[in-house]
User: What shape does this take?
Amino acid sequence: MRQIQEIPAGAGTQSNAVIPPDIRKRYGITEDLHAEYYDTLLFGTGQTLRDEERAFAGSATRDDQITNIVGQGFLLNERQFLACGVWVHTYFNQRDPIPQDAPDVMRLYELYNAYTYWTFAMGSNEKQTIWSHRIPSGGGLYGSSNIDGRVVYNNGYPHQKNVFWFKEPYFIGLRQTFEFKLKWMNRLATAGVYPGTINPLTDFNSNITAEKLLRIGIVGIEGRGWTNG
Assistant: This one.
């Protein structure tokens, strides 16, 4: 069976030609649009994260700089959604970079990729857990520069097709709540070197001068009047 991950990025708004027939039949899809929803956990300087953060948990007002989801974690206007994949974009840098800041910036990327994971939930049911190092950005800058010590890293090649595709799409029905939870793990200390456990979140939050951006997006097919197969 063809999988939903074969949907090519940038296929246009009308995606009738790329949804596998069995998926279309299962959900009663007759008209649909390519759609993408995003939310932002970090945006700016001096920001920190908690042990658990929730994306798509609901926003009172729409602010396109932060999120395009309005409401308590569900889609408005009778919309339904087939969630096909997820991307995460990270950007960390010093506002006044100097060459010796590069290791500190690199450490932010390393801590996030090594010690965090995302869990996708619909209502109270957790559907899938994915380690952060497995979720690429689906786009962004590529290359390197030593100008002013600036450092930009990507988790994987930053191509628009390069997101984490679910094996099977998740159907988000009318007023169905959904969210992505970001959680941190503790790393065990090395005996005789670092006694006790070390919290990488504390390490990550200790850099309060860096500019931090952490945004997650979910991509798929949107429509109305579908059935839940």
Summary: The first helix runs from residue 21 to 27. Residues 1-17 have pLDDT under 50 and may be disordered. The longest strand covers residues 80-94.
